[in-house]
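quick one before i forget lol
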Amino acid sequence: MPTNKNALARIAFLDTLLADRHHYYNLDDLTEKCNERLEEIGVSTVTRRCIEKDIDFIEGASFGGNIDKGTINGKYCLRYADPSFSIFTKKLSDDEKNLLQEILSTIGQFEGLDDFEWIDDLKQRLDVEERPKIISFSNNPFLKNSNLLGLIFNYISHKNVVKVCYSAFVKAKAGIEFHPYLLKQYNNRWYLIGAADSDGKILTLALDRITNIEPVANKEFIKPDEDFAERFDDIVGVTIIDGKPLEHIVFWVSDVSKDYVESKPIHGSQKSINNDEDLRRQYPKLVGGRFFSIDCIPNYELIRELTSFGRELMVLKPKDVRAKVLEWFSKAAERYLECQ
């Protein structure tokens, strides 16, 4: 199958062009038409060779599209031999139905929400049977404003500039014009990430703090100049502090929790430090356990994660992260002493 992330859009459009009995398209025409469509939906154009591979894929075992390649009215063209054929009307095999059902069930957390009725419609049109879920993700059905997920999904998908009324914990922000780029979940809470229209500053808005959101008419949507999914690679959670550097963080975990931390890393960069003789000499009171390192940008969520292990985890380096963890525990101890 073509691996380009825009392959589904290309193949769906090619399917329409190959079924067209009113026009005669050769390979160059198909490439031009597909690229026009890709530009309309805001994705990268492709080469003639890429379209040729897509056609080979449509003809292959997955879809079995029988494509005539010959001259009609003096012009060489490509079209389905059967004008009624479409890859979307092909009967699904049992394996394909099972896979499709699992995909739909995986995103089934959105079922029943406004603007996501299309999931149920798709199941009915494809005649996919309901069955128990095989994969289940954490989902909080009582989360405030979870009904906004479908609406915001559509705003992002259609590249709508929106006006957001936001009630932050510190103070309310009324009427922010906002370019939405990404919906992200962290710790059973949903966040909307995008750019403020006024200055382009990237903002992270918790959905449960949004009091109103609506599209802004006749406003040009500004595309992001980065992959926002990758923006979060260097942090834990969703809080990005501009200008803060990546830190090499070393910590020790006791025998009680070391296997848990190794199997469920605190950050994607986490590594076990196997040659730990120098650390053992430097910290002789840390008996047993295991040393780990991560490379990420410190933020509130990281400190909260590190402190969640209590005495079973000790941050050793760098000094600023160690000091923040120690401050967290010191303030917690003070509060406990105050409430005796």
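fyi Confidence is low (pLDDT under 50) at residues 1-5.
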